[in-house]
Amino acid sequence: MSTRDTAVPAYADLVGGLTCPPGAAWGVFGNDLGTLNFATAERVVAAATLVRRGVTIPLNWSTTLPSPPILGRRAPTHHRVELDGGGFDDYYDSFYPQMSSQWDALSHVEHPEFGFYQGRPLADVLDPVFPALGIDQWATRGIAGRFVLADVEGFLAGQGTPLDAASAFAITTDLLDDVLAAQDVALDTGDILLLNVGWICWYEGLDESGRAALGTGDLFAAPGLDPREETARWIWDHRLAAVAADCPALERMPFDKSSADGFLHARLIPLLGLAVGELFDLRALTADCRTDGVYEGLFCAAPLNTPGGAGSTANALAIK
Q1: Element (H or E) spanning 56, and its range?
Q2: Domains in the chain: how many in total?
Q3: Are 197 and 153 in contact (CB under 8 A)?
Q4: What pLDDT, on the 0 to 100 scale, is given for residue 1?
Q5: Which of 168, 184, 201, 310 has the fewest C-beta atoms lying within 10 Å of its C-beta?
Q6: In which band, very low, low, confident or very high, does the pLDDT at 7 lie, cut at 50, 70 and 90?
Q7: What pTM was computed for the model?
Q8: Does residue 5 lie within any of the structural domains?
Q9: What is the span of the domain harbouring residue 53?
């Protein structure tokens, strides 16, 4: 049975006003946690009851991949420091928390017209003492709830139309509905939706020259969510706490920041306050779900507690 909160306005009712643009959820929750507010304590308790086998499945790709890094990020250099008496400490140079499996904080993307989530000014985001919209907002709370895996790759393969991970394939809301129906699973308030498109598996099959071609810092073709407004509407009206995928940008690439329907991030993060995850390694979880036919379970993640941080390593687990 759905537990959808009818007190929260539908997307169609996010009409804006003097201090809030259309399509924005500013002021809905009264804090800066964004859609994580949907993952209430009651929803986490319900998610915990889904654990049947005690199987823990990490969703974190190696911090050394992709190599070379993509989208202008840099590779970390790992140093070991030998301790007196034996043993080691480590430190990293050029560590980009959003190079591999990652969360985007609500300060990661600014809307080109309306600015940051909740209308926060840049001065608030850069405040040296209490920076707004940083990843610490989620780190000090944690991310937990019911996950639902949408195996887009597996569904399309079963339809005889396999997904090309090197293409700019757009995952529409109709396709998501079809995938979830085929898996006999329905979304509910506070869920964390995980999208398997098979990108990481495809990437690891590339040769050195193929990986180098993606590591120029430029945008390249990759599958992901359809960038049109309908996707934002669907996510909000399902009351999702977070959406994460195994592709580089959650939405399809290349994206077009000059168009309102060309860059989904601008709607999801600064307008709706959605927790966005990218490059999650969903291979083991997908294999497990295909084996037992259960596409839901308990999800937990602990982002880095960095005040004002624009993102974090995923630090995520699925438990079934």
Answers
A1: strand 56-58
A2: 1
A3: yes
A4: 34
A5: 184
A6: confident
A7: 0.96
A8: no
A9: 11-319
Residue 214, domain member (yes or no): yes
How many of the other CB atoms lie within 10 Å of CB of 209? Answer: 7
What b/e string do you get for 117-129 counting C-beta neighbours within 10 Å, with b at 16 or more? bbbbeeebbeeee
Tokens of 88: 């080691």
Crossing angle of the two packed helices 173-182 and 229-237, in degrees rounded to 10: 40
Residues 136, 309: contact at Cβ < 8 Å? yes
* Beta carbons within 8 Å of 13's beta carbon, 6+ residues apart: none
- Cβ proximity of 308 and 137 under 8 Å: no
The proportion of the chain whose per-residue pLDDT surpasses 90, expressed as a percent, equals 95
Closest CA to 198 of 251, 162, 226, 240: 162
Site of tokens 């986490």: 44
The predicted pLDDT at position 41 comes to: 98
Domain for residue 6, yes or no? no
273 pLDDT higher than 90: yes
User: What does the radius of gyration of the chain's CA atoms come to, in whole angstroms?
Assistant: 19
Question: Quick one: average pLDDT of 103-107?
Answer: 98
What CATH number does residue 282 fall under? 3.50.30.50
1 is a domain residue = no
> Rounded distance, CA 131 to CA 222, Å?
33
